[in-house]
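User: Fold this one for me? It's MuF-like minor capsid protein.
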Amino acid sequence: MSVVEDYQAQTEALAAATAAQMLALYAALQAGGLSPPAATEAMAAVVNVANAAATTLADLFVTAQIEVASREPAPPTGIAPTDDGPRLTKAVATILDDLDDDEPDDLDDGPAEERADDEPAEEGSESSDAEEPAENADPVDTAAMRLERLARAEPLDTGQDIVVEIINRLPQVEGWTRVLDADPCERCQRWAEDGRVFPKDAHFKRHLNCNCQQQIVMTTPGEMRSGTEKMEKPA
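Assistant: Here's what I get for MuF-like minor capsid protein.
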């Protein structure tokens, strides 16, 4: 498994685990085991912890690519996670408040859903991995879907943001190519541009629940191996 593929497996596992924890807390709320304030706090905390984990994973991911490419040890940047608690608490509270509304409001639950969808989806393509609720859907089911979507999207988006930030800091990185996730949509395939090497500060387009990642290209690619080569474990 390549460095990028290994990282994608880790981020997918983190997103899935976070979503499962979110739904378990929501089930406890519906069963009366948690009060709304306690559930809101716990749900926000679960996602906040996941975002912190995503930050660390992203830092280690870029470091691993540098080490494989340069054949030399490289320290992680040690970038500190951001405390997203207040923002996430507000997002969760908004979703739960809509349980009392006859018509749920806009499904925008915060920055995790504000993706770089700069181009309209082509006919027949998927705009994201999220499913929109059916008209007249049960508010309880709609809230569950929105909470799950928030829990999955946040760590994926955080990881991508951190990778972009670190790559832009590193002078030895010349650019990057887009590595598609396991089930890429039509837009992601188009955005990859057949393996084009983008400048390192080029905008990395993605959508909700996108797990595409950046494969770094070093400033001296002729002397270094690609960051997607398999990591060799010590004998």
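One thing worth pointing out: Confidence is low (pLDDT under 50) at residues 102-109, 113-130, 221-235.
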